[in-house]
Amino acid sequence: MRQPIVLTRLKNPLDLIELSRRGVNKAAVDLVAQKLSLTDREIARILNISERTFHRYTTDTQLDTSSTERLLKLMLLYQHGEEVFSNLEDFKPWMRQSMRVFGDKTALDLLDTITGFELVDNVLSRIEFGTYS
Questions:
Q1: Rounded distance, CA 46 to CA 113, Å?
Q2: Contacts of 87 (CB under 8 A, 6+ apart)
């Protein structure tokens, strides 16, 4: 399984902090959104940017620290999901299913908060280790 280039440098949380502070540009966001089959509305909500502002960004626009960190967390979450489900294409539909564990919302609906990222990742870990109920 091939890791996205940006994630190969994330060996520990300090790497995530450093890369978040450096920022990524909108071109990188567009590539991630395309790979994960996310709409502009979905990716803007996850990054905590209004959709209108997101559309105003040029490909060279650098994201701030908070939005970059959210993008990196999104990539790590999907990487974890790909590992648990054995491939990304099987994981993507899971992210869009309403589930009782998420209060009858989808995992994707929860990614507008850091706590939501943690909850989804926790459920993935439970599935991975066979403790999901």
A1: 8
A2: none
Helix (H, G, I), strand (E, B) or coil at 56: helix
Q: Helix (H, G, I), strand (E, B), or coil: what is residue 66?
A: helix
- What is the Cα 98 distance to its own chain's centre? 18
Predicted pLDDT of residue 13: 84
Helix/strand/coil for 99: strand
Residues 62-83, buried b or exposed e (16+ Cβ, 10 A)? ebeeebbbbbbbbbbbbbbbbe
pLDDT of 2 strictly over 50: no
Cα–Cα dist 46/22, whole Å:
19
